[in-house]
Design goal:
Length: 274
């Protein structure tokens, strides 16, 4: 049986530094969180050590073996991560939404055009690619630009909760709609807004697919140091094929080398980068 590649310790130490997995570099404030997202390019919100890639929760914990507890309501680290997420959403300096495969992710502004090139839907394609419920929500938001959940349900006519949530997730994945604020009083609700309202240049710029895959792979490998089969796809929601195309492009330009199939590491030795 062929042995599955593992991440070498030098790469784990590289990830500790870049993904804030040490107590001396852990994320404490919203300013720390914004800096982290802008440095790594993209990061998950509440994933733990069981999924590869940078994560706000792991950065808050400040350790590489962080695992989300079952009872998150009483866990101070997951609660702090959630509070930072809400503040990041309110500030609007980084992109946040449920993207590919329902992953809640943060994107640095520079990465928004690349993710949009892969998963975004252009206006002319909305009629064919969006469901009727999603189009109804989008029409309502384009009239008002921002709406709370209750008002959006009423204005769109999509009052069934399951249908509404499914349509909102569809619009987030298409990078058309994003949460603009979380309000807790008098009850918990999201204020929904158009992505183009907060990131107009990033969401209207044109990037070809090959460039997008290259830059997504570059952002991941810069922080990972070494990537083994499946890591880039699991972290981003890309298919294995697309992840491979991005990594191959990094090798073609000399940014990475591939000593064996599915394994890629930075051309520059890791100890000189850290």
């Amino acid at each position: 049986m062929r042995k599955h590649p593992t991440v070498p310790e030098t790469a784990e130490e590289h990830r500790d530094l870049h993904w804030k997995r040490t107590g001396t570099h852990q994320i404490r404030t919203v300013a720390d969180a914004e800096l982290f997202v802008n440095e790594v390019g993209f990061a998950a919100c509440l994933t733990d050590a069981r999924r590869p890639g940078p994560s706000l929760y792991v950065g808050v914990c400040g350790r590489r073996d962080a695992v989300m507890p079952r009872n998150v309501q009483k866990d101070p680290e997951s609660s702090h991560t959630w509070q930072l997420k809400d503040e990041l959403v309110r500030r609007g300096n980084v992109y946040y939404a449920k993207l590919a495969k329902g992953r809640a992710m943060f994107l640095a502004p520079r990465m928004v055009p690349y993710f949009h090139a892969i998963w975004g839907i252009r206006r002319r394609a909305e009629q064919n690619e969006l469901s009727p419920d999603a189009r109804a929500l989008l029409r309502a938001l384009r009239k008002e630009w921002e709406l709370g959940t209750a008002d959006l349900r009423a204005d769109s006519g999509v009052t069934d909760r399951k249908r509404f949530l499914r349509a909102v997730d569809e619009l987030q994945a298409a990078m058309l709609v994003m949460p603009g604020q979380v309000v807790y009083a008098p009850k918990l609700t999201y204020i929904w807004t158009l992505g183009v309202g907060r990131f107009p240049e990033e969401l209207t710029s044109r990037v070809n697919r090959a460039t997008a895959l290259l830059e997504i792979a570059r952002a991941f490998l810069a922080g990972a140091g070494v990537t083994i089969p499946g890591e880039l796809a699991r972290s981003t929601g890309l298919s294995r094929t697309d992840a491979g195309l991005g990594n191959h492009a990094l090798c073609a330009e000399g940014y990475a080398v591939s000593p064996r199939r599915g394994v890629y590491h930075l051309t520059t030795p890791l100890d000189t980068l850290d």
